[in-house]
Design a protein that fits this description.
With 618 residues, the chain is α+β, with helices and mostly antiparallel strands. The chain has 18 helices and 17 strands. It holds the Pfam family HATPase_c.
């Protein structure tokens, strides 16, 4: 396998880009089209099947609701019949062998009104234990109770059926034979008990018109190929469409104790069965598999045609794209070959604005620059030498200044003027920091700078009138902060807090707490009035640099605004600045910077410095 793979890689690297591009394009086109076609067919088949099952489930559920409504309605009719007073008069006179002709006539008229008002009722009959009292049929030619009692259904059988209901309606389904044809008959039987004595006096039988089921199905089933039926006691009461009754009965035996719609799929039919729990009946739908998947076969053919067309169209587009991309690539290849021979010529304008057009433009720019560099290399060397001389001169000036300060220091020590020597040393340290090119110093270097600065100011204030206290964590001393970040704050504290008072103390603290560097500059000077402090805070928030009148200059905000600006520019939201002050009690300034921000900013500065150095070396 490894040898085959290596051979394939070796061959792949030797063929041209156009062949690679076309081969990969055909693979990328062919595989997705096949996968999309197969998956689309599979998904569509499943969706059609699920849609049919869902549609059929809704149909038979609706049919069940309507049939249950009819069942309840017909049960109510039987209850209404039992409320008729003439019924019990007829039964009572029949038992006593008294003439009841007039009562039967009145009862028959009421039954006729019920039948005429309810087309779902085929016949109504009242029976005693020994004989028929009265039967009323509708005016149609359908079979009625008078034709089936007791020729096809015995009175004894009806009595047994009604007795199972114990006074409640019992639905009974049977097959009737007429003219060599069998037809289902649906009867509702009910025992008649005397409301006063509660004794059994007879049987009420109501024959149901099975056409009500056919009407229900004809309204719900639109698919001609779909068959639907109502089955009770193993007898098909009503059927619409062709249905395999033998297989349906087998499926029904499996769904006997199940709830909801049960779906069975065979190689020939898809069957849905829904029980009607009130009567132990079932509603069944059936459709041949060939008919259901007839549309799926059409979908398969369309998918094949679409896949073929997609393959042809995408192949043509890939070929055009390949030719469009290879033309500028070949032009670049030829131009590089010429450059290798020493011919520095540009590529003709192909009027492209895409990445290849940008590449060609950059290539042409590179060729122009190479020609320019070749022609002007000697001038560049001279210019570079002049720049080096200027750099040496700028390095010499600070060195010359330090030599002069060192000479003054030597003369002061020689003449025994130690104060001048101390000032010169402090000034040298200040200049050393100011002349450094680094943007960041360690907190330790900043503290030394402040110490030198205070030692110079003590000449004016006096050694005892100006005190400096420093308290910095050891770990904080090595942290790098922006150069001269603290000095403007110390200067403000001295000239605007201590000088009006004549004497005072400056405190500088540096601490690490909660992953932050906290810097505190505090003085015990004259402080700032509340209104002035409010104005300063607003100016700091707005980065205001408004110059105040001469009498207001003692509270200038220039140094503070400079510090706050630098903090926001360098650290953004990772740094906080606050100022608190009380009149005649002093001012406290606090700066907080996240430690992660300190290290991040320093690293970015080093990378920037390194980048500038590389550019200067080019």
């Amino acid at each position: 396998m490894k040898l085959i793979f290596k051979s394939f890689i070796k061959y792949y690297r030797t063929i041209s880009i156009d062949k690679k591009f076309l081969t990969i394009s055909y693979i990328q086109i062919f595989i997705p089209i096949i996968l999309i076609g197969v998956l689309s067919f599979r998904i569509s088949s499943d969706l059609i099947f699920k849609k049919y099952v869902g549609y059929t489930s809704d149909v038979i559920k609706t049919a069940r609701l309507r049939i249950v409504d009819k069942i309840n309605e017909l049960n109510s009719i039987t209850q209404d019949i039992l409320y008729q007073a003439e019924l019990y008069n007829v039964l009572d006179k029949s038992i006593k062998n008294v003439d009841y002709y007039d009562d039967v006539t009145s009862l028959t008229n009421k039954f006729r009104k019920i039948i005429l008002g309810h087309l779902d009722v085929q016949s109504i009959g009242i029976f005693t234990k020994d004989k028929k009292l009265c039967i009323v049929d509708n005016t149609s030619k359908e079979i009625g109770l008078d034709e089936i009692i007791s020729s096809q259904i015995s009175l004894e059988e009806i009595y047994k059926i009604a007795a199972k209901g114990n006074g409640k309606p019992v639905w009974y389904v049977t097959l009737l034979k007429k003219d060599k044809e069998s037809k289902a008959a649906v009867l509702i039987t009910r025992c008649i008990n005397n409301p006063k004595t509660l004794k059994f006096e007879g049987i009420l039988a109501v024959m149901v018109n099975t056409e009500l089921f056919n009407k229900t199905f004809s309204e719900l089933v639109a698919e001609k190929s779909q068959a639907i039926a109502v089955v009770g006691s193993g007898i098909f009461i009503s059927t619409k469409g062709e249905i395999n009754r033998g297989k349906i009965l087998k499926f029904m035996s499996r769904a006997k104790n199940k709830n909801g719609v049960v779906t069975y799929t065979s190689s020939e039919y898809i069957v849905n069965i829904l029980p009607i729990k009130q009567l132990d009946w079932y509603i069944v739908t059936s459709i041949p598999v060939k008919i259901l998947f007839k549309d799926i076969e059409k979908l398969r053919m369309w998918l094949i045609v679409l896949c073929f067309l997609s393959f042809v169209i995408t192949s043509a587009m890939s070929l055009m794209l390949s030719m469009d991309l290879l033309k500028p690539i070949n032009a670049i290849v030829e131009a590089t070959k010429k450059i290798r021979k020493g011919e520095y010529k540009t590529i003709e304008n192909l009027e492209r604005k895409d990445e290849l057009g940008i590449l060609i433009d950059n290539f042409n720019s590179m060729v122009v620059k190479i020609n320019h560099l070749i022609n002007s290399i000697y001038k560049e060397q001279i210019t570079r030498k002049e720049a080096e001389i200027k750099v040496l001169q700028t390095q010499l000036n600070p060195h010359f200044l330090f030599n002069i300060l060192e000479s003054i220091n030597w003369l002061a020590q020689l003449n025994g003027v130690s104060q001048i020597s101390d000032v010169v040393i402090a000034l040298s340290k200040l200049l050393e920091v100011n002349l450094k090119e680094e943007k960041f110093l360690t907190l330790e270097e900043e503290i030394k700078y402040i110490t030198s600065y205070i030692s110079i100011l003590k000449i004016n204030f006096g050694e005892e009138n100006l005190k400096l206290e420093i308290d910095v964590d050891r770990k904080a001393l090595k942290l790098r902060i922006p150069k001269l970040l603290i000095q403007p704050l110390v200067e403000n504290s001295i000239f605007h807090g201590i000088r009006p008072k004549g004497f005072g103390r400056i405190f500088v603290g540096g601490y690490i707490w909660n992953d932050k560097l906290t810097i505190i500059v505090k003085d015990d000077g004259v402080g700032i009035p509340a209104e002035k402090l409010k104005g300063i805070r607003q100016d700091l928030e707005n980065n205001s640099e408004v110059l105040l009148e001469q009498e207001e200059r003692s509270y200038t905000r220039i140094g503070l605004v400079n510090v706050v600006k630098r903090l926001k520019l360098i650290y953004g939201k990772d740094a906080d600045f606050s100022i608190e002050s009380l009149p005649q009690r002093g001012t406290t300034i606090k700066i907080e910077i996240l430690l992660d921000a300190l290290s991040r900013v320093v690293e970015e500065s080093l990378q920037e410095f390194s980048g500038e150095g590389e550019e200067n070396n080019v």
